[in-house]
Amino acid sequence: MRRLLIVAVVTGLAVFVTALPAAAKGEVFAGDALSASWRFRRPLTSHTYLRVFWYVDAYDTGDGSSSYLSRYVARCIKREGRDRCRTKSWQSGWIKRLEDGEFSVDRKLTSGHLEATYRLRTRKDREWHFVGTASIVVDLTGVGYITRSRYSDSFHTGCTQYTYKGKSRSRDAVAAAALEFDGQTRHLGKTRRGWLSRGESLEVQNDC
Fold first, then answer.
1. Which of 34, 57, 116, 205 has the lowest tally of Cβ within 10 angstroms?
2. The pTM is what?
3. Domain residue spans in the chain?
């Protein structure tokens, strides 16, 4: 699955912005992100079973915070070597703007929290169809080392030069969630497929 890249950086950006030439315009962006996924295997018969996959993420967009939730189910047949699986259903929901307090990441990447309700849809006959709502509460705990990364890039468009500088910090996490779906509340349990990130980035536009 995808891991969101939260572009980011830091210390010294404010100084850099104030030192820009008069023709340059600088803007600093800050962003947090988290993600988690759960995988389950549910027996049907002695030779068939369901694979169920839940995925959730949340991230800053520069104009608020957004979130995505999806559920994927495949029906599998046991075979020698590799099992044969076919998609049974896939539903997803996206929240364009989360409310205050629904999403947070600790600045030291020790914890993260997400609480939101999604309108799930599925695609059938080339159209999207509403299938119901799902509410999830996720708590993440950072584990292991913090990974740090830096980046920079620049390019021209006509007479304008764009420069990007940034750095980010990310950390693996253990996630636990409570989910309300199909009128039932279930605990997804703990997963080590969690992730936390914080960072900032600087965008500079230099006009001719």
1. 205
2. 0.80
3. 13-206
